[in-house]
Amino acid sequence: MRVAKSLAFAALAATVVTTRAHAAESPVDVDTCRDLGFDAETLDCRRCDELSTFLSTSASTSDGDDSAAASKARDALQADCAKCCQDLSAKGLHAIGGTAGDKYARVVLEVCTCKFGRYPKIANFVHQHAQKHAQLEIKACNYMYYINARHPFLIFYDVEGTKQEEVGIASWDEDTISEFIEAKVAPPEEAATPAPTTTEDEEKKVASDDAEQSEEEVADATDNDEL
């Protein structure tokens, strides 16, 4: 079974490379990619490589045999990623998120509750697993406001609060989502936002406010003594 999986992953990698080559020759449909959970304007193809490596590793270390449905879902996800990505370095552009393997400060899972029936594993993750991740925020929309809500996806942010990466997770199971978050998000102690610095003017204002408060306290004490 391990050998079969290795061959399957090798075939998958070849498929991704071939798909990417064809995608490079045709224009990217930004709207379609966004519906799939990919930002085509900033998605570097190296992110697809990273995602492929993660999903392959996750599947090879999971218990039990890999189901045909799960393999098909991974194949489709990789194909979608390859169709939506660009070789930004070759175009002289910069991908958001720094280098592959970077750790982010926090992550937001955006999902429409109206789609929980369609994505039971996503719903179960939100209800049973999300609380295990301190740096995860669930942003659930309601169908009344988002009639055309897209598929569930993860958005990663740096310590400054700037969006760095987003990935569609419609076909993922609970364990894969948890493992991906753990792999991409830094522990709370490492992702802590730096304390804001106090400028000289702010320090003077604080000192002035403290002095005024002290004067008021002295005046109140004097009035009480006279009474």
In terms of topology, how is this protein built?
Elements: H1 2-25, H2 30-36, H3 45-61, H4 68-84, E1 106-112, H5 120-129, E2 136-141, E3 153-157, E4 163-168, H6 174-184, H7 188-191, H8 200-226
Subcellular location: Endoplasmic reticulum lumen
Organism: Globisporangium ultimum (strain ATCC 200006 / CBS 805.95 / DAOM BR144) (Pythium ultimum)
InterPro entries: Sep15/SelM_sf, Sep15_SelM, Sep15_SelM_dom, Thioredoxin-like_sf
Q: Can you offer a commentary on this structure?
A:
- By secondary structure, the protein is α+β, with helices and mostly antiparallel strands.
- The protein has 2 domains: 1-95, no CATH class; 96-193, Sep15/SelM thioredoxin-like domain, active-site redox motif (Glutaredoxin).
- 52% of the residues lie in helices and 11% in strands.
- Helix 1 (2-25) runs parallel beside helix 4 (68-84) and helix 3 packs antiparallel against helix 4 (68-84).
- Residues 1-25, 92-97 and 193-214 have low confidence and may be disordered.
- It holds the Pfam family Sep15_SelM.
- Residues 209-227 have a biased composition (Acidic residues).
- It comes from Globisporangium ultimum (strain ATCC 200006 / CBS 805.95 / DAOM BR144) (Pythium ultimum).
- This is Selenoprotein F.
